[in-house]
Amino acid sequence: MAEHQTQLPAAQNMRGTNQSGLRAWNERLIFTLLHNNGAMPKAEIARVTGLSAQTVSVIIRALEQEGFLEKGEPVRGRIGQPSVPMSLAARGAYFLGLKIGRRSSEMILTDFHGTIRDREVLRHDWPEPESARAFALRAAHDLVMRLPKSHRERVAGLGIAQPFQLWGWSQALNAPQDVMDRWRNADLCTEIGQHLPYPVFMRNDASAACGAELVFGRSNLPRDFVYFYIGFFIGGGVVLNGALHTGEGGNSGALGSMPVRAPGGETVQLIELSSIYGLEKLLVQEGLDPDLLWQDPNLWPVPDSIMTAWVELAADAIAQAIVACLAVIDFKAVVIDGWFPPAIREKLRARVFEALVRRDLAGLNIPQIHEGSLGGDARALGAAALPLTDRFLVAADAGLGTSLSQSDLP
Question: Which of 6, 7, 202, 409 could bridge 189 with an S-S bond, Cβ 3.0-4.6 Å?
Fold first, then answer.
């Protein structure tokens, strides 16, 4: 992570024994609560966080003056003064998210609500570190400069969602090995951060997509689940006790490398059977242009026969991987998302469940199978979530997590 200081006015430390550290921690509690629950009155914020009414009033007044919070319409009809809900101000902070993909790279600008305000896209046959760095700096500059001048210093950071070990996939990408080898020594986080006035963070792209589901996605997921994201390659993430578990090297949840049995009986990696590049091959075999998959994740003009064949193959392999995951951790749910239209996502989810219940599950509990909620934007949103969580939210492993809600505290 590149070390740069944001120009946002609130305190930087998350927790501490001094007064400023405690104040920063309490601010994070309030930010996290409002992020997860939406608008709430001060009395309810005090009840849920356990902070005194006076402390909450002081902090909220300051955050409102700094532009991070805003008042809603008073709620009348109760005894006493009207209740005034407070919420995150959409324009209180902005976050940049860079997704480096196998067929395209994309930079988004999100606001404090996680709404994508703007984006830049670069399409390519394969990613190169030099062009990725140049695109990141140009796109970050252009997106920020399109903000009103008074908002530009409210950009809190840039997150990068990047596939790890790209040099190992040159053949699948049909890319020159010498080009892919340049990723071995590339350090985009530092190289980009040297030119920007705010922090830069990095995470594996599939793990970032999983993180986006936690921060911006559906709120009714159990605290332990395994996540599959299907892009050019399939990858994944592991969530334990409400927190994304990436491991010491940041590569936990590398589900694409899991061994599964192919229809012919040979053992291959999941990535060979359940990735979109496999669908590309089927299109090429039929004389169709595989680029039609990468223009719009919500529109795939793919013949039904080809689509069905790929879904069945991918679903059976994912079901095998789920069984292996359940043998290690008793996951309560599985989430499946990817770069494809919602109808394909639902079809794949249903086929995965059907394939799963056909397998030998003796000694295992059948998990719920859910669709992801973010689709093609999941990786870029996961990147943008990195500076958001680092700067404003309580970390899940701190005991409260990004799942802090009205029912978490007395």
Answer: 202
**How far is residue 260 from each of residues 215, 270, 274, 277, 288, measured CA to CA in Å?**
31, 6, 10, 17, 28
- Amino acid identity, position 199: P
Tell me the three state secondary structure of residue 184: helix
Q: Does the predicted TM-score (pTM) go above 0.85?
A: yes
Which tokens in the block code for residue 3?
């070390």
Structure tokens at 110: 């999100």
Tell me 198's DSSP state. Answer: S
Give the confidence band of 282 by pLDDT, cuts at 50, 70, 90: very high
Q: Please give the share of the chain, as a percent, with pLDDT higher than 70.
A: 90
Measured CA to CA, the distance from residue 160 to residue 174 in angstroms comes to 24
The full DSSP string for 73-112 is --B-SSSSSPB-EEEE-GGG-EEEEEEE-SSEEEEEEEET
Torsion of the alpha carbons at 214, 218, 222 and 224, rounded to the nearest 10: -30
Given its phi and psi angles, is residue 328 left (phi above 0), alpha (psi -120 to 50 degrees) or beta? alpha
230 phi and psi angles, rounded to 5 deg: -105, 105
* Average pLDDT value over all residues in the chain: 89
Name every residue whose Cβ is closer than 8 Å to that of residue 96 and which is 6 or more positions away in sequence.
107, 108, 109, 110, 140, 143, 144, 155, 157, 158, 159, 383, 384, 387
Determine which helix (DSSP H) or strand (DSSP E) holds 143, and give its type and residue range.
helix 129-145
pLDDT (average), residues 103-118: 96
∠ CA 252-339-231, rounded to 5°: 45
Q: What is the DSSP letter of 248?
A: T
What's the confidence (pLDDT) of residue 1? 35
* Spatial contact of 47 and 32, defined as CB atoms under 8 Å apart: no
* Other CB atoms within 10 Å distance of the CB of residue 186: 17
* Whether pLDDT at 320 is above 60: yes
Pairing of strands 333-338, 225-230: parallel
Which of 170, 253, 242 is CA-nearest to residue 204?
253
In the block, tokens 């940049």 appear at 96
Q: Which of 204, 178, 194, 276 is nearest to 234 (CA)?
A: 276
> Is 260:275 a contact under the CB 8 Å cutoff?
no
Please state the φ and ψ torsions of residue 127, each to the nearest 5 degrees. Answer: -80, 140
What distance, in Å, lies between the first and last C-alpha atoms of the chain? 37
Domains and CATH numbers, the chain: 1-71+88-217+375-410 (3.30.420.40), 220-373 (3.30.420.40)
Could you tell me which of 88, 38, 115, 112 has the C-alpha nearest to residue 388?
Answer: 112
